[in-house]
């Protein structure tokens, strides 16, 4: 678990280093986000033991990641082409995209504020957060194969 | 000039015979009495499972609705395809705008034969090519569950299709080519029960092949590339290969697949996306046994490489 936390911290550090390319930048943040949620869902499923302090650390890392997700800077006009799966709908409906991201951030913050005491509580929180992932990926991402 | 008269006469006979044959071959065919006799009384609580397995709400709920509003089946989603735009109709219990006045036999003819109560063909955007593999008793259960849902007034606009797809009668010929009630993947005797149950869910009510299998020029699914993934028939992008072939989900374990259907998380730390988001929410309503069965079937089917062209990587 300690190794995982260190790995995540290093990833977070790497992601915070300013990239010139917003596409690489947002992909790094998304990858980090997925890794953290993936680790948490293993705990929620009971595949790894529940350690309240470690879980809270990961949730906080998830919040830090979400707060770094500056939609304006990461999705500037013109960054819809190239090696990206971002859907054109992001730029057609920027307000809706931001709202979806804001709801995600709010749900992550709520999870940190109500630090889960057991795997079941974490499972409920991960369920809400996972549903936010789906909502955004439903309309704002295009699978290109 | 006798030969010319003969030729014209012969052409006329052939033409009329051809038209008559086309007309007969394209006629809507309803279920026979023996099949209707298998419907049985129907049970709403069992029907709820079929409702979610069938994904009715993904197309027939008002677009963008959440929570209980997903059970208001007023229609109106726009499915933009190369054939034109299909608009799923109101299938709520409203007797005038919806299907509240339908009998259970009407629902069975719609789902298993693609024929409306007035005897018209439905377009196969309504996935009866998959539903045709369902058990009549499951249709009766679904009918009983639909009866418990609200009646909502309102008719969405109709389809807008290009010629020749706007000629409904032509669907009769399409059905002769593609409408079968037999399983796609033959399974030998002694196949484990979960695989058999999964085949029923995936090939029948789940209608997974409608999006995950590439189609031929006439819009039929290519059974030789079953579930190999496809260019999206509706919207943009691709639908993933869910066989164990190259580009598919061979690295996913059966429990990875079941977990994905329950939670929406892939084993490689990604989440469900696109049209699959609604599907996954429906799958989460099924039992763990049903999701395990689907996973077991997907692990058992023939592997295929991707049924869509490789992604054009930018050289930026």
Can you describe this structure?
- The complex is a heterodimer of chains A (145) and B (316).
- Chain A contains 7 helices and no strands.
- Chain A is mainly α and 145 residues long.
- In chain A, helix 1 packs antiparallel against helix 2, helix 2 runs antiparallel to helix 7 and helix 6 packs antiparallel against helix 7.
- The longest helix of chain A has 23 residues.
- In chain A, 32% of the residues are buried.
- Helices cover 39% and strands 4% of the residues of chain B.
- Chain B is built from 13 helices and 5 strands.
- Chain B is globular and about 80 Å long.
- The chains are: A mainly alpha (145), B mainly alpha (316).
- At the A-B interface, helix 2 and helix 7 of A face strand 5 and helix 12 of B.
How many H/I helices of chain B?
A: 13
Radius of gyration of chain B: 21 Å
Share in β-strands of chain A: under 5%
Helix content of chain A: over 70%
Mean pLDDT of chain B: 94
CATH C-level name of chain A: Mainly Alpha
Strand content of chain B: under 5%
Q: Unreliable stretches of chain B, pLDDT < 50, 5 or more residues?
A: none
End-to-end Cα distance of chain A, whole Å, is 34 Å
Defining traits:
heterodimer; A: 145 residues; mainly alpha; Four Helix Bundle (Hemerythrin (Met), subunit A); B: 316 residues; 2 domains; three-stranded antiparallel β-sheet; two-stranded antiparallel sheet
What's the gist of this structure?
Chain A has helices at 2-16, 22-44, 52-68, 71-74, 89-92, 94-113, 119-139. Chain A is mainly α and 145 residues long. Chain A starts with a helix and ends in a 6-residue tail after the last helix.
Describe the SSE topology.
The complex is a heterodimer of chains A (145) and B (316).
Chain A: H1 2-16, H2 22-44, H3 52-68, H4 71-74, H5 89-92, H6 94-113, H7 119-139
Chain B: H1 2-25, H2 33-36, H3 44-54, H4 56-60, E1 79-81, E2 84-86, H5 104-113, H6 128-131, H7 136-146, E3 160-161, H8 171-178, H9 193-203, H10 209-212, E4 230-231, E5 238-239, H11 254-263, H12 276-283, H13 288-300
Antiparallel strand pairs in B: 1-2, 2-3, 4-5
């Amino acid at each position: 678990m300690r190794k995982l936390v260190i790995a995540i911290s290093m990833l977070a550090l790497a992601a915070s280093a300013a990239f010139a390319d917003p596409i690489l930048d947002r992909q790094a943040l998304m990858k980090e986000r997925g890794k953290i949620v993936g680790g948490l869902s293993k705990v929620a499923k009971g595949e790894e033991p529940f350690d309240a302090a470690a879980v809270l650390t990961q949730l906080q890392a998830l919040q830090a990641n979400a707060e770094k997700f500056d939609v304006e800077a990461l999705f500037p006009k013109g960054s819809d082409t190239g090696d990206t799966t971002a859907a054109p709908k992001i730029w057609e409906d920027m307000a809706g995209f931001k709202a979806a991201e804001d709801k995600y951030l709010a749900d992550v913050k709520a999870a940190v504020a109500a630090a889960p005491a057991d795997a079941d509580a974490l499972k409920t929180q991960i369920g809400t957060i996972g549903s936010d992932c789906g909502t955004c990926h439903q309309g704002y991402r295009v699978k290109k194969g | 000039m006798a030969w010319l008269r003969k030729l014209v006469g012969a052409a006329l006979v052939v033409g009329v015979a051809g038209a008559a044959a086309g007309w007969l071959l394209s006629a809507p065919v309803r279920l026979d009495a023996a099949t209707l006799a298998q419907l049985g009384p129907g049970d709403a609580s069992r029907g709820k499972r079929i409702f979610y397995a069938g994904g009715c709400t993904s197309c027939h709920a008002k677009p963008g609705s959440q929570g209980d509003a997903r059970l208001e089946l007023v229609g109106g989603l726009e499915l933009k395809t190369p054939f034109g735009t299909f608009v799923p109709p109101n299938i709520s219990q409203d007797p005038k705008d919806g299907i509240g006045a339908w009998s259970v036999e009407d629902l069975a003819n719609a789902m298993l034969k693609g024929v409306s109560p007035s005897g018209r063909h439905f377009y196969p955007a309504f996935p009866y090519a998959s539903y045709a593999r369902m058990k009549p008793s499951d249709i009766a259960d679904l009918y009983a569950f639909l009866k418990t849902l609200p009646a909502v007034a309102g008719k969405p606009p109709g389809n807008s299709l290009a010629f020749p797809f706007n000629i409904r009668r032509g669907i009769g010929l399409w059905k002769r080519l593609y409408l079968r009630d037999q399983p796609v993947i033959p399974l030998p005797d002694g196949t484990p029960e979960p695989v058999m149950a999964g085949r029923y869910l995936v090939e029948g009510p789940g209608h997974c092949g409608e999006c995950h299998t590439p189609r031929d020029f006439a819009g039929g699914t290519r059974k030789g590339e079953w579930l190999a993934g496809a260019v999206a028939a509706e919207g943009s992008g691709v639908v993933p290969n869910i066989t164990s072939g190259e580009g598919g989900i061979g690295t996913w374990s059966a429990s990875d697949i079941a977990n994905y259907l329950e939670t929406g998380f892939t084993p490689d730390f990604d989440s469900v996306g696109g049209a699959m988001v609604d599907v996954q929410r429906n799958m989460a309503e099924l039992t763990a046994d049903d999701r395990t069965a689907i996973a077991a079937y997907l692990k058992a089917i023939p592997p295929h490489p991707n049924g869509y062209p490789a992604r054009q990587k930018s050289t930026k």
